[in-house]
Amino acid sequence: MVCPGSVWGDARGTLGVMADDITEGRLVPVIGSIDMRWPLVHRDGFAALNVAALAPGVADAAYHGVTEAGLRVGDMLADVGAMVGRRAGHRIMPFEQALAKRGARRVERGAWSVERGAWARRAAR
């Protein structure tokens, strides 16, 4: 089993979706607190992990793929905002609201990252 952190790369993934929201003046949804930490993995690192997991190894092994120990969400908002030249706004979504809106499985699996929520908006465009 391969368990990634929040995958990012180029203009896609967690940070790319966050940049889209900030650039377009939308408030970035943050579940719980801006002090939460998100473990990240670049898409190339995640691809390498998948290749390694397919190699002969231990049966029923779990591979956890993160390249960052966990970045504070508030710091990511500030850094991405600086990259796109805009101040990042955010709105706190309480866990209970996230559970009701997104479902327990999605919230429990990585505290429902911004990436998972924004793909539906992108697909609707």
Explain how this protein is built.
This protein is an alpha/beta fold. It has one domain: UDP-galactose 4-epimerase, domain 1 (Alpha-Beta Complex), CATH 3.90.25. Helix content is 47%, strand content 20%. The protein has helices spanning 13-23, 43-54, 73-84, 95-102, 104-108, 114-124, and strands spanning 2-4, 6-9, 28-31, 37-38, 40-42, 63-65, 71-72, 90-93. The strands form four sheets. It has a two-stranded parallel ribbon. Strands 2-5 form a two-stranded parallel ribbon. Helix 1 crosses helix 3 and helix 1 (13-23) crosses helix 6 (114-124). It is globular, with a radius of gyration of 15 Å. The N and C termini lie far apart (33 Å).
- Major beta sheet, specifics? 2 strands, parallel
Strand content: 15-25%
* Order of the strands making up the biggest sheet: 1-6
Name of the CATH class: Alpha Beta
From the spread of the alpha carbons, the general shape counts as: globular
Average per-residue pLDDT, rounded, comes to 76
Q: What is the H/E order?
A: EEHEEEHEEHEHHH
Q: Which runs of at least 5 residues are low in confidence (pLDDT < 50)? A: 108-125
* Count of runs of 4 or more consecutive helical residues: 6
Count of DSSP strands: 8
The CATH topology name reads: UDP-galactose 4-epimerase, domain 1
Radius of gyration: 15 Å
